[in-house]
Specification:
Blueprint (H helix, E strand, L loop, with lengths): L1 H5 L7 H27 L5 H25 L10 H26 L8 H19 L1 H13 L3 H34 L4 H32 L2
Helix pairs in contact: 2-3, 2-4, 2-5, 2-6, 3-4, 4-8, 5-7, 5-8, 6-7, 6-8, 7-8
């Protein structure tokens, strides 16, 4: 039945999810460079990298609009349209949270971060980027599965979902430990607030990635 419905599309909407995921991944790599630049303090390229993230986010938005604008109306899909659009929304919100994080950093570009905190933050960012990178193989596996459904193909998608969830959980643990350490250091109130909010904006990135994974799990469960 799924194969027959899938043939109603000349091009499956899942084909377009992969380019969007790749653009999100590209943005994540630029995000990692920007964070590293910020933490070095003597890096003059932070604003350039931040603007590059904005450019990539704009390109991803164009892909998203194309997906929404060219989805055939009145044609049955292999999944609920609501679930499909919710997945796209959450994958796109990964980029919004990346932008929010870099914008927050730009408010205090001269801020000095404790070396220990900087090291832990960079580790959290690495885990976050790893979670984002999982979106690409997950979308790729989902595209293959919906083209030709099989138990093996479904298992591959589920494995990618589990991998992303593990990374999101690891990021949550790092966020918790960072917050606790900031309070232990007894910093001034402004620095403490700024740091806590920074950790939360980074954590929101993986939250949206996990939300996308949850929607993918719902789509393949039919």
């Amino acid at each position: 039945m799924r194969n027959w419905i899938g043939r109603l599309f000349r091009k499956s909407p899942f084909d377009e999810l992969l380019p969007h995921a790749k653009k999100v991944q590209e943005c994540a790599w630029m995000f990692r460079k920007a964070i590293d630049c910020f933490l070095k303090q003597d890096c003059e390229e932070f604003d350039i990298l931040r603007k590059e993230v904005i450019r990539l986010e704009s390109e991803a938005d164009a892909i998203k609009r194309n997906i929404r604008g060219h989805l055939p109306k009145g044609v049955m899909m292999v999944v609920e349209k609501f679930q499909f659009f919710m997945f796209l929304r959450e994958q796109d919100k990964v980029l919004d949270s990346v932008q929010d994080t870099l914008q927050w950093l730009s408010f205090r570009e001269e801020m000095t971060i404790e070396p220990e905190i900087a090291e832990r933050l960079l580790k959290m960012v690495d885990v976050t980027v790893g979670a984002i990178e999982t979106l690409v193989p997950m979308c790729d596996a989902a595209r293959d599965y919906f083209r030709s459904p099989s138990n093996e193909g479904r298992q591959v998608v589920k494995d990618r979902i589990r991998e992303l969830r593990r990374k999101e959980h690891a990021a949550d643990q790092l966020e918790f430990n960072l917050k606790r350490r900031v309070f232990d250091l007894n910093l001034d109130s402004t620095t403490t607030f700024y740091s806590i909010r920074l950790f939360e904006t980074v954590a929101e990135i993986t939250d949206h990635a996990e939300n996308a994974a949850d929607m993918m799990r719902a789509m393949i469960s039919r």
